[in-house]
Structure to design on (226 residues):
C-alpha cells in the first residue's frame, strides 16, 4: 500500500526475489531469517531452514529453526543446496568470514541469493557497518569462493529518491500514537510514494543510483578456478 513508508524497498526486493528464489531447490537455508518473509517464494525448496542470532525478539516469534552466535553457523559442511541471505550483510562486521561460513555449508555448485542495501539510512544501530556498491559486492563474493551468476539493482529510478524521503518522514515524525502515525502516513507519505511511482514510470532509470543489490551466486567446486 502507498501509505507504507517502505513501499518501494519492500516491493522491489519481493519482485527480484520472486524471480530468483525459485531457482533454489532441495535443502534451502535462510540466514538471518527473521520471520521468514520470503519462504513462500522458495517454491523449489524441499526443506527450508531458518537460522538467526539468538535474541529475545527472535526467540519470541518462534519462526527461527536454528540459533547462532552471528559468526559460526552450527550446521554441517555441505549440507544445503541453496542459501538466502537478505538484508543481513550490512550488519556483519567481518563480511568475508561470514560469507565463508555460508560457503562452507553449501554443497559444491550450490546457489546463494544475497541482497544488501546500497542507498539506505543507518538502521538497527549500532549494528550497521557497511554499504556495498555492485563492484565491491562482486569482489567480496569472489574472494569468498563464489562466482556471480547474476547481479541486479533493485529500484534504480526516481522511486529510490521517493523511498528515501518517505523513510526520512517516517523517522522524524514517528510518535507513540498509532493514530498520529497513520495520519502522517496518509497525508505525507502516501503522496510522496504516489508521486515517486508516477515519475519513476515516466523518467529514465539511473543504474548508478538504486536501493538494493540483489545477487545470484554459485559456490565454486573444489579446485575450480575463476
Amino acid at each position: 500500500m502507498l501509505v507504507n513508508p517502505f513501499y518501494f524497498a519492500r516491493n522491489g526486493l519481493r519482485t527480484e526475489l520472486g524471480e530468483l528464489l525459485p531457482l533454489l531447490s532441495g535443502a534451502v537455508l535462510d540466514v538471518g531469517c527473521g520471520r521468514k518473509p520470503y519462504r513462500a517464494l522458495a517454491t523449489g525448496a524441499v526443506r527450508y531452514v531458518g537460522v538467526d542470532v539468538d535474541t529475545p525478539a527472535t526467540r519470541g516469534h518462534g519462526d527461527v529453526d536454528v540459533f547462532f552466535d552471528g559468526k559460526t553457523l552450527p550446521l554441517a559442511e555441505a549440507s544445503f543446496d541453496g542459501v538466502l541471505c537478505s538484508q543481513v550483510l550490512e550488519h556483519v562486521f567481518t563480511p568475508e568470514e561470514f560469507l565463508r561460513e555460508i560457503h562452507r555449508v553449501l554443497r559444491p555448485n550450490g546457489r546463494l541469493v544475497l541482497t544488501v542495501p546500497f542507498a539506505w539510512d543507518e538502521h538497527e544501530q549500532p549494528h550497521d557497518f557497511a554499504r556495498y556498491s555492485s563492484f565491491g559486492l562482486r569482489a567480496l563474493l569472489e574472494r569468498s569462493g563464489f562466482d556471480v551468476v547474476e547481479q541486479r539493482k533493485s529500484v534504480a529510478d526516481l522511486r529510490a529518491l521517493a523511498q528515501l524521503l518517505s523513510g526520512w518522514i517516517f523517522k522524524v515524525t514517528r510518535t507513540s500514537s498509532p493514530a498520529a502515525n497513520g495520519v502522517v502516513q496518509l497525508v505525507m507519505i502516501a503522496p510522496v510514494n504516489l508521486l515517486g511511482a508516477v515519475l519513476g514510470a515516466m523518467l529514465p532509470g539511473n543504474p548508478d543510483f538504486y536501493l538494493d543489490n540483489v545477487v545470484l551466486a554459485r559456490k565454486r567446486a573444489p579446485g575450480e578456478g575463476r
